[in-house]
Write the structure tokens for this entry.
Amino acid sequence: MLEKAITHKSFNTKVSHNYEQLEFLGDAILDEIISDLLLKKFPNADEGYLTQKRSSLVRKSFLHKIGQKFSLIKYLKSDNSLDLNDKKVIENQTANMFEAIIAAIKLDSGISDCYSFIKKTLWKNKNMAWESVNYKGLLIEYCQSRELGTPKFITSNTFGPDHEKTFKIIVEIKGEIKASASGKTKKSAEQKASKKIMEQIKAQIFFNSRI
């Protein structure tokens, strides 16, 4: 089963001998288990918030990062038609193998071991995926879609020596300060402040009505 999970169709075209079917199954299993874990972590979150969190965890680029941790690409069986000097190809193949391995575990050992594998690998590193989310962009989109105008990101303070400044950013929506955060760059502080607001909004613990 493991042999099949690391075999690309260029190496063996028989469906029963390459990972395409396993990848298909693994993708579905991954969605189900991540959805279950998210519901347990965020019991009061709405569908939009949960979908956003799940998308960041199951996207190819993040699965590739997890697969890199145990050098998955080294074990890929493929022929020379697959360009393993291309970073995008490596990313896709690593992600595909990760999903195929999930399915292989499910078929070989059952859903419990599969759940355990995902928790120990992908879920354990969930913050790595969530930190890369563009919360500022999401906040701007959220406000504009609800006719709240564009949020204002204001540098309220800077402190520290010139070579190592820290910036404090406040976020105003319709003239009201909704969050503040500090960071080594204005961009990181803006992201942190936006994340605070988005998590409160999406978890339905921000306000009971519009901002």
The longest helix spans residues 87-109.
